[in-house]
Amino acid sequence: MSKLNLIHHKTGGQKGSKRRPTEKISQTVLYVIIGISAVVFALFYLVGYNMQSVEDPSFNAPLLTDALLILMMLLLVVAAVIGIAAVCIGLRKRDPSDKVVNGVPAAKISTITFGVTFVLLLVTFIFGSTDTMMINGHQFNDVVSLKLTDMFVMTSIVMIVLAVIAVIFGYTRYIRKGK
Prior knowledge:
Elements: H1 3-10, H2 20-46, H3 65-93, H4 106-126, E1 133-135, E2 138-140, H5 143-178
Antiparallel strand pairs: 1-2
């Protein structure tokens, strides 16, 4: 039996039928998260947004700030847990023969990507700024929080620049290949 027929046989004769339930769950989760976020943001801006701060009346203290912060922290934690679980499951299920898939060194690319990201996070944390900041009229000088913020901002900027460079390099490859 050929490889194509074997795949067709294993999926019950329907191309991609195995992915449909996963796709449906993914779509539903996405729509639920978008719906909850839209409701929380709408409530944040429409209910008690212009309340004055008790400590300093020149600042706003929106009523539902805590709800918005809790939602963002919850989404961050859930995303981190799912991401770590996906990496662990992927590493556990990885077949040693999957180092090269269709001529692409997948294991090498995965290892390099993880290593570069980890080193980049570490370097940007070490060299992150600890200069105090004025936030809402108060001095903010927590060294760890300042370094973490700088780490995430700088790492994001570097990764975006690297992605743009990779896209440009990939595009020019087709131009170079044509010559």
